[in-house]
Design a protein that fits this description.
The chain has 266 residues and is α/β, with parallel strands linked by helices. It has 9 helices and 7 strands. Helices cover 38% and strands 18% of the residues.
Length: 266
């Protein structure tokens, strides 16, 4: 199957050129504003187990403007490397590592045509919002798995475009929806298994997050204000209820994130 990059380099080049560098990731910070980061942190801790330490190597694929590489270095002790095909995004990732005083490596290259010394070299390979942009999901996951050492762990996160976020994006910002392959838990698991990996865990995470949506089509400022404010209000209400144990359970319809954790056979 011919692999198609549904986003394309120009999309990312424009995105990074028009965005501000993100704030450092601080999982110790309380409050609802940090609810998503804390949920990601709790899940990552649960699946990494004893992995990590100064001799363990972690690679983030699609690392442009990544706040996760400093996180994995500081909180889990990994020797971190990032790879991305966009030079501007890589420069921003390097700046974020420097700001966090992390001595990591950033490589500008294509996942499907990487430097040979990176193949089979990493104990953990991560990606956050990457594999869903490629038409042949299993084929792309197979390319990602080539970076893993035998027995290595792959941690993959994608947005849930099957649920309410995907439906709203399709209605309100179709160009962004069209650069995604909608993946639910079952589809993401199947892609990893077809790539020869053993799936250890797969799940949806968090009950709701409408803050990730973009509403650029609304140009009348009162409508734009409501379109930006209401997702924040509804999401924080859902997070407060979830934290109190009163919210709706995670599910394929409202949960915004899909995770899959798999290993490469030794």
């Amino acid at each position: 199957m011919t692999q198609i990059d549904k986003a394309g380099a120009e999309y990312w080049r424009t995105l990074w050129a028009n965005s501000q560098p993100p704030a450092p990731l601080d999982v110790a910070q309380g409050g609802l504003d940090n609810f998503v980061n804390q949920a990601f942190h709790a899940y990552i801790v649960s699946v990494l187990g004893e992995r990590g330490g100064s001799d363990a190597k972690l690679l983030e694929l699609g690392c442009a403007q990544s706040v996760w590489l400093p996180y994995f270095a500081h909180h889990h002790g990994f020797d971190v490397t990032g790879l991305d095909y966009d030079e501007g995004g890589c420069a921003r990732a390097e700046a974020l590592l420097a700001r966090a005083n992390v001595n990591g490596r950033i490589v500008t290259a294509d996942v499907m045509q990487p430097p040979k010394d990176m193949l089979g070299a990493y104990d953990v390979v991560t990606s956050f919002g990457l594999v869903e942009h490629f038409s042949d999901t299993a084929g792309f996951v197979d390319h990602c798995a080539r970076f893993l050492a035998p027995g290595g762990l792959m941690l993959t996160e994608v947005p849930n475009m099957h649920g309410v976020n995907g439906w709203l994006c399709k209605q309100l910002n179709r160009p962004v929806y069209d650069i995604h392959v909608p993946l639910d838990v079952e589809a993401l698991v199947e892609a990893h298994r077809r790539a020869g990996l053993e799936v250890l865990d797969a799940r949806y995470l968090i009950s709701l997050n409408l803050c990730v949506l973009h509403f650029e089509p609304f140009r009348f400022w009162p409508v734009q204000f409501l379109a930006r404010a209401m997702p924040v209000v509804l999401s924080k209400l859902a997070w407060a209820m979830e934290r109190a144990g009163l919210g709706i359970p995670v599910n394929r319809w409202t949960s915004p994130y899909v995770f899959c954790v798999a290993t490469k056979p030794a």
